[in-house]
Amino acid sequence: MTQGHQNLLLLSNSTAPGRAYLEHARDAILQALDGRRSIVFVPFALADHDGYTDTVRRALEPLGITVRGAHEGTPRDLVAEAEAVFVGGGNTFRLVKAIHEAGLISVVRARVAEGMPYVGSSAGTNVATPSLRTTNDMPIVQPPSFETFGLVPFQINPHYLDPDPASTHQGETREERLTQFLEENDVPVLAMREGTWLRVSDGSMRLGGVTTGARVFCRGSEPVEVPSGADVTWLVERVGAFEVGR
């Protein structure tokens, strides 16, 4: 895919404490839409497609954006004709199963290559990467493949939480889980904290949002801190490979 044609907004999260749904990212969404006034929303990460789509309508229609759910017709046809697409968060395994069954992988890739804006949040951001392997979610269903849209060539881990030295939790930290991923795969991971997003446009990739920023995990090296506002286009220069072993 030609990176220069991409217009992506990949949000770590859709809600922020004390703020309405998508309120923290409204300006970024409008910038990504670049004057477009309709969007097809993909609600398949949650079970209640109608209710989820209504939530998005209430958030975006006051901004002058018409919202139609991908389930309100033939999903593949609606996405093929859409001005823009928004893929919402929820369970990534359920979302990946649904996008494969609906035949959305190839059509989303083709439309994004043409310059159609793609907005993702949480699970919708996970599926913008090559694989669901760095999701935080429980595998409540079994998709036919871990393959996702691959709109960026690296992995993303939304909702990233830093290790808490005072925590009494005995399970793996997020850092430990991503380190385990890199033991088996040689693919960089952009771990985005809450309130952070990745903006891809005009051939560049830049972090946006609040000042919490992100961390980049690469096989064989220590995680690198990346502040909000930083250019992370360099991530595309690293060719990754899955299941390469140790």
Automatic annotation (TrEMBL):
This protein's UniProt keywords: Cytoplasm, Dipeptidase, Hydrolase, Protease, Serine protease
EC number(s) on file: 3.4.13.21
Catalytic activity from the UniProt record: Dipeptidase E catalyzes the hydrolysis of dipeptides Asp-|-Xaa. It does not act on peptides with N-terminal Glu, Asn or Gln, nor does it cleave isoaspartyl peptides
Top class in the EC scheme: hydrolase
Protein's recorded name: dipeptidase E
UniProt organism field: Micromonospora inyonensis
Family: Belongs to the peptidase S51 family.
GO biological process, one term: proteolysis
Primary location: cytoplasm
Cellular compartments annotated: Cytoplasm
Keyword Hydrolase carried by entry: yes
GO MF annotation terms: dipeptidase activity; serine-type peptidase activity
GO cellular component terms listed in the entry, alphabetical order: cytoplasm
Upper lineage: Bacteria, Bacillati, Actinomycetota, Actinomycetes, Micromonosporales
